[in-house]
């Protein structure tokens, strides 16, 4: 059964992104991250394509003179370059791992986990930055209120997709469990309704009490 409206990265990403340029001085980087209460920001070139990411922990490590725990060898050129960094370009991590707006939430979550990063810049077909998606954005997609779930089931599944008469199926949602009571026009619709409800983000289970309405 196709999931008709699994939400995508494009649905949950932040479009207003605080970006840095390679030439942005480190003091300004720290101030921007702090003022916007964010843990990292993408560094973009003059076209708007992401070329790296600078995190607050990079800045903090630099300020305190602590070595990069990920760096195996403190004598390599990269570490020394970072130690002397005065700009975002010298301190940033690159290459930058990016996401696409059409990715599913689970795909983006797997990528974040696999790359050990807390956020991914989102790029369009042209490679230019269109947004940023964080772990908490992805979590929020799964943890939805019962009211939101009920609204989606009633409006999208029963109304828009299946065209059922309003009120023919009553929907209750408690802790992500959807209970359906009512009538559908034909027996083959019962598994379809259940399958579509299971495909709604945030639904834990579907408990269906559906009868077939006799044409009268």
From TrEMBL:
Matches recorded under SMART domains: CBS (SM00116)
Residue span(s) of domain BON: 145-214
Gene3D superfamilies reported for this sequence: 3.30.1340.30, CBS-domain
Region annotated Disordered, chain positions: 61-81
Entry coiled-coil feature ranges: none
Top-rank lineage group of the source organism: Bacteria
Domain named CBS: residues: 13-70, 92-149
Full protein name: CBS domain-containing protein
Organism for this UniProt entry: Streptomyces hirsutus
Lineage, broadest ranks: Bacteria, Bacillati, Actinomycetota, Actinomycetes, Kitasatosporales
């Amino acid at each position: 059964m196709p999931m008709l409206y699994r939400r995508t990265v494009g649905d949950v990403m932040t479009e207003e992104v605080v970006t840095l340029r390679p030439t942005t001085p480190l003091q300004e980087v720290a101030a921007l991250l702090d003022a916007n209460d964010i843990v990292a920001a993408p560094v973009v070139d003059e076209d708007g394509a992401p070329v790296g990411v600078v995190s607050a922990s990079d800045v903090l490590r630099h300020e305190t003179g602590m070595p990069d725990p990920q760096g195996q060898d403190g004598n390599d050129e990269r570490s020394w370059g970072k130690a002397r960094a005065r700009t975002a370009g010298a301190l940033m991590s690159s290459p930058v791992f990016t996401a696409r707006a059409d990715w599913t939430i689970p795909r983006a979550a797997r990528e974040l986990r696999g790359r050990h990063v807390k956020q991914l810049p989102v790029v369009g077909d042209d490679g230019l930055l269109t947004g940023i998606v964080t772990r908490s954005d992805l979590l929020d997609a799964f943890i939805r209120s019962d009211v939101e779930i009920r609204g989606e089931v009633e409006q999208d599944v029963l109304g828009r997709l299946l065209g059922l008469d309003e009120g023919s199926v009553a929907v209750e949602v408690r802790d992500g469990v959807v209970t359906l009571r009512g009538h559908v026009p034909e027996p083959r619709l019962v598994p379809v309704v259940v399958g579509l409800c299971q495909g709604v983000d945030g639904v834990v289970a579907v408990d269906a009490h559906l009868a077939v309405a006799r044409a009268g």
